[in-house]
Amino acid sequence: MKTSILAPPLKAQKIFERFRLQLTTDQEKAGAILAFTFCYELSWKILKKVLHKKGIQAGSPRDTFRFATQNSLLDNVETWFEFVQKRNLTTHTYQELVVQELIAVFPSFSNALNKLIERLETTT
Questions:
Q1: In whole angstroms, how far apart are CA 59 and each of 11, 51, 110?
Q2: How far is the C-alpha of 22 from the C-alpha of 31, rounded, in Å?
Q3: Domain range list for the chain
């Protein structure tokens, strides 16, 4: 895979990491949630493109994550299904409990995102 397709996720990953490690203010939390959303969206859309190049048509994020797991691009589809649920919560960040729930998934998402990028760099 050309580095250019990985450039946006790599840049987004760096931004996400910077924000997720500094969550003291509401503004920093909002930035981290936005960065999480952006990384999530890039992840499934790039996976969809990779799968398409392999002749696999995936429509939704869930289908994309399912097919990506079947093709050894992801380790655990259930982990990514959890990220789907958390992504859907991002429209409710005005509720403090939702903000805390989203922030709680950041370490897991960071690990999964790092693995995904590594796998894309080596397998495509």
A1: 25, 11, 24
A2: 10
A3: 3-123
Contacts of 54 (CB under 8 A, 6+ apart): 71
Distance CA 45, CA 18 (A): 23
> For every one of its 124 residues, what pLDDT tens digit does the chain have, with 9 covering 90 and above?
445 678 887 889 999 999 999 999 999 999 999 999 999 999 999 999 999 999 999 999 999 999 999 999 999 999 999 999 999 999 877 788 899 999 999 999 999 999 999 999 887 6
Tell me which CATH code domain 3-123 carries.
Answer: 1.20.120.330
Token reading at 104? 């709680």
Query: What's the pLDDT at 25?
Result: 92
Measured CA to CA in angstroms, residue 10 lies from 3, 70, 91, 92 at distances of 10, 24, 24, 27
Residue 110's closest CA among 39, 44, 42? Answer: 39
Please indicate, yes or no, whether the overall pTM of this predicted structure exceeds 0.70. yes
Which residue in this structure is represented by tokens 């299904």?
Answer: 81
Cβ distance 1 to 124 under 8 Å?
Answer: yes
